[in-house]
Amino acid sequence: MEWFKKTKSGLVSQEKKNIPEGLWTKCQSCGEIVYTKKMEDLFWVCPSCNYHFRYTSKQYMALLLDDAKLDEFDTNVHSVDPLKFKDSKKYSDRIKAANEKSGGTEGLITGLASMGQVPISFSIMDFAFIGGSMGSVVGEKIARSIERAIDKGIPLIIVSCSGGARMQEGILSLMQMAKTSALLSVLAEKKLPYISVLTNPTTAGVMASYASLGDVIIAEPKALLGFAGPRVIQQTIGQELPEGFQSSEFFMDKGFLDKIVHRAELRDTIISLLKYMWKR
Ligand SMILES: [Zn+2]
Questions:
Q1: How many domains does the chain have?
Q2: Cβ contacts of residue 203 below 8 Å, gap of 6+?
């Protein structure tokens, strides 16, 4: 006995063809197909598996900051190419292309803002700019962001999203790890709070410096966190890596994180922390 019968041939494929592009989004983690409008309402978090799609720096600012407003600083700091570095492309050409792609943010947007009326010195990494990599300019802008928090006596928030140090600047990019870490110790001496927010991915030189030095460190679920890539580690130590290695959940389990926070609760969580940790 037949339960269903196709009465008109080609009807299903015809319908599929009529769906406008971008109306549906396929989850990169579980394959679920979700109505794009619904994904926007859900802060781009998969309703089926909780996978957090990558958010842009602008989307994070709209999500986190009061009135989505940032008084931006240090927009006139630009990268140079001191080593005249060239791999498959000239570094100077990469900078130019990244500037055009990102709108000239140089890997980090920084400024003054408020969250729940608490004034903050705010920085957010821009993954669109050479993988959010940390070169001299990102390091300098982070440093200035910390100094602004110190000068004004206000909390510091850094939202990280980075593949690590920018290899095209060699040792100059690695020096930024020491520079930012040293300044964070001054911030700590002043007893000003620093909340570090880790998004997918936060790795290498950034993870090994300011991203892991927060008074409170929070991460989005299932974010890739770590220093070297898993294959490099596996080859170096010659051992199988545990399941879930380098995820937020693994880091939480091992005591590296204070809290894993769903994107929808990120703003409220940070505000309640700020109000607890800082008094005018
Ligand atoms: Zn999913």
A1: 2
A2: 162, 163, 164, 224, 225, 226, 227, 229
Does residue 39 sit within a domain? yes
Q: How far is the CA of 25 from the centre of ligand 1 (A)?
A: 10
CA of 16 to the centre of ligand 1 (A): 22
CA–centroid distance, residue 266 to ligand 1 (Å): 20
The CATH number covering residue 59 comes to 3.90.226.10
Chain segment 28-80, per-residue pLDDT in tens: 889 999 999 999 999 999 999 989 998 999 999 999 999 999 999 998 888 88
Ligand 1 geometric centre to CA of 45 (Å): 8
Same domain, 96 and 165: yes
- Residue type for position 92: S
Q: Which domain holds residue 33?
A: 21-53
Distance 43 CA to ligand 1 centre (A): 13
35 CA distance to ligand 1 centroid (A)? 12
Task: Give the residue with greater pLDDT, 68 vs 239.
Answer: 68
Pair 49, 154 in one domain? no
- Summarize the chain as % helix, strand, coil (round to 5): 40, 20, 40
pLDDT at 208 over 80: yes
- Taking the centre of ligand 1 as the mean of its atom positions, its distance from the CA of residue 220, in whole angstroms, is 15
Mean pLDDT of 197-218: 94
37 and 78, same domain (yes or no): no
Centroid of ligand 1 to alpha carbon of 232 (angstroms): 28
| Closest by Cα among 182, 229, 231, 173 to 206 | 173
Q: In this structure, which residues have their CB less than 5 angstroms from ion ligand 1?
A: 27, 29-30, 32, 46, 48-49, 51
> Which among 53, 68, 96 is the end of a domain?
53
Question: Is residue 93 a part of any domain in this protein?
Answer: yes
CA dist 83 → 55, 173, 182, 201 (Å): 32, 11, 25, 27
Residue 181 lies in a domain: yes
Task: Answer yes or no: is 16 within a domain.
Answer: no
